[in-house]
Structures are given as C-alpha cells and as structure tokens.
Amino acid sequence: MTPLVDVMLVLVVIFIITAPLLVSAVKVDLPTTPAAVGLKAPRFLTLTIDPIGQTSINDRLLDTQALSVALRQAAEQHSDTELRLRADATVPYGRVVEVMGLAHQAGLHRIGFVAEPLRSVK
What confidence tier does 71 reach under pLDDT thresholds 50, 70, 90? Predict the structure, then answer.
C-alpha cells in the first residue's frame, strides 16, 4: 500500500509542475484579410435587480407584468437568447428565483449570473 501512495504523490507533483506549462500560449500578430469572417456574438439581455427588488432590462425599468411580456417577446424572437442576471448582493433569494421563474416560463432557458471578481488587497 505504501509504494502505491508514493507513486500517487509523485504523479501529483508532476501534474502540479506541468499544468502551468500546458496553459501558456504563444502570442502572435495575425495577418488581416477581407476574407476573414467574425464570429457572431450570442444574443443576450441584461436583466438587473436593484437593492429594493426592482427589475430592468437593458437599463429600462419594468414592473413584473412588463418584465414577463418583455422576456416572452425576446424568447419568441430568438429562442437561444441568453439572460445575464445582475442581482444586487442584498436582494432576497426569493426575488431572484421569482425572476428566474418568469424567464423560464417565457422560454428563456439560458441564464448567466454576473458577478464582480474578487479584488486582492495589497
């Protein structure tokens, strides 16, 4: 049993050392050509829930009924539309789930949660 543990520890060390080497990429300046075609950006809506629970889509304030209508229209136009949900940290969990339910009922099944990255203190 002990030799097996030793082998596993050696493998872990090898993976720890080689993993950063696999991630590095070569920086290149790509040539330009008129034949190059850009990728289409995915369609998305930004839905914001402010600290008091009010909702807005793309900075347009909406009540619950208008929000439901707007989400349904977005789903009818493009069923693959992604909903990017920006909820304030103080918003109750129930309100976030309620808005997610409205999106799901409207036919929007792709929901992304927007968050700020942690900032390191120096």
Answer: very high
Spatial CB neighbours of 50, under 8 Å, sequence gap ≥ 6: 56, 88, 91
5, two tokens: 């543990």
At 102, the amino acid letter reads L
The third-level CATH classification (topology) of the domain covering 44-113 is Nucleotidyltransferase; domain 5 (3.30.420)
What does the mean pLDDT of the chain come to? 80
Tell me the chain's radius of gyration from C-alpha atoms: 23
Residue ranges of the domains in the chain?
Answer: 44-113
Collapsing DSSP to helix, strand or coil, 43 comes out as coil
User: For residue 82, what are the contacts with CB-CB under 8 A and spacing of at least 6?
Assistant: 42, 43, 44, 45, 108, 110, 111, 112
The rounded distance, in Å, linking the Cα atoms of 48 and 54 is: 8
Question: CA separation (Å) from 53 to 82, 90, 115?
Answer: 21, 9, 17
Predicted structure pTM score: 0.61
**Residue 51: per-residue pLDDT:** 86
